[in-house]
Design goal:
349 residues, alpha/beta, 2 domains, two-stranded parallel ribbon
Length: 349
């Protein structure tokens, strides 16, 4: 596969070789799949993912996460090093991503949300998408009581959401939250913000109310379903992919009491270890921004016998960094040339 502009980027990368010394970039992916609607920009198409891997294999030193952690501890980081990670545990990490990782011999770590493994439904943010952003007819008014406050929203004429309306708006994403094209997108973003910090029991109650309001049933679309226990095992076959923990229910850990945080962290680890039959040593904070976990969370991760933890804020890995708060760069659905440019800039940062 030939990527347009590769020669120019290769020359630029070589000219900056000195600047890249002893720096490693950790990449964060979520889904590798074809898509029509992606409100959180989590999807990378298989075609673009293949272009990314070709670039990584030919131009960078790709390594496993556990080897990176050892290098950080020993103060022996490689130059132009890259680590590939995935968050959440979508089934297409196995069906679409793994064959490409094997083709290019690129290792990866997949952080799996243990409570969703083998589940009948989708991640809660995907369920919101299915209920609100897909074509169909909903009641014109939605009322919800949340934390003692009653909310009401009016969908108006988009209570009936036609195929044409869906196709005209399917490129909308949450980065355009200040300019939603219809009340459907405005409602989606508002509910996402309200549900995000809730404990799993409260969030489930609200989702059950939304399902009843919409006249819908719990289900998992093939493009959005999560890994089954057998698929988690298949993921690690061959040794190229490692599985890390990502809690039980994907909460905002900083919104939970310390005891609940420890339970999410320890139980998520234990469930995956039961499935895999061996220890799970790496962890990723759900959502992962600096406000989504606390120093108490980091302590709980250490106490759970993890050897490292990945966050979700931008930055390079350098000698002496806290390996329980490893920064990562989120990868979007860029073609090979754009991905190369971004990677080049990240190493310069």
């Amino acid at each position: 596969m030939k990527i347009r502009g590769i020669g120019r980027i290769r020359r630029g990368a070589l000219s900056l070789k000195g600047r890249f010394t002893r720096r490693v970039v950790i990449l964060l992916y979520h889904r590798v799949t074809e898509f029509t609607l992606d409100p959180h920009l989590l999807c990378v198409t298989p075609e673009h993912f293949a272009e990314h891997l070709e670039m990584l294999r030919s131009q960078y030193r790709v390594t496993k996460l556990d080897r990176l952690v050892h290098a950080v501890q020993e103060g022996d980081l490689s130059s132009r090093g890259v680590v590939v990670t995935f968050d959440d545990g979508y089934a297409n990490n196995l069906s679409n991503a793994k064959p490409l990782l094997e083709r290019y011999d690129v290792p990866a770590t997949v952080f799996v949300t243990a409570g969703y493994v083998g589940g009948e439904g989708e991640f809660w943010w995907d369920e919101l998408d299915r209920l609100l952003l897909q074509p169909g007819t909903l009641p014109e008014t939605l009322r919800l009581s949340l934390n003692g406050t009653t909310y009401q929203w009016e969908l108006g004429e988009v209570a009936h959401y036609s195929e044409d309306a869906f196709r005209s708006h399917f490129r909308w994403n949450v980065l355009e939250k200040d300019n939603p094209p219809s009340p459907r997108q405005r409602l989606y973003f508002t509910l996402h913000q309200l549900l995000r910090p809730l404990p799993k029991e409260e969030r489930k109650e609200i989702l059950d109310e939304l399902l009843a309001w919409a006249g819908a049933q719990t289900m998992a679309r093939p493009t959005h379903r999560t890994l089954s226990p057998d698929e988690v095992v298949q993921l690690i076959e061959g040794g190229l992919i490692q599985v890390g923990a990502h809690t039980v229910s994907h909460p905002v850990l900083s919104a939970l009491p310390a005891a609940a945080q420890r339970a999410e962290i320890q139980e998520g680890k234990a469930r995956l270890e039961e499935i895999l039959g061996h220890s799970v040593t790496s962890f990723a904070y759900p959502y992962g921004s600096r406000s989504d976990y606390t120093s108490e969370t980091v302590t709980a991760v250490r106490e759970a016998k993890f050897t490292c933890a990945c966050s979700n804020f931008a930055g390079v890995v350098w000698r002496g960094i806290d390996h329980f708060q490893l920064p990562r760069f989120v990868v979007r659905d860029w073609n090979g040339e754009e991905f190369s440019r971004r990677l080049w800039e990240w190493f310069r940062s």
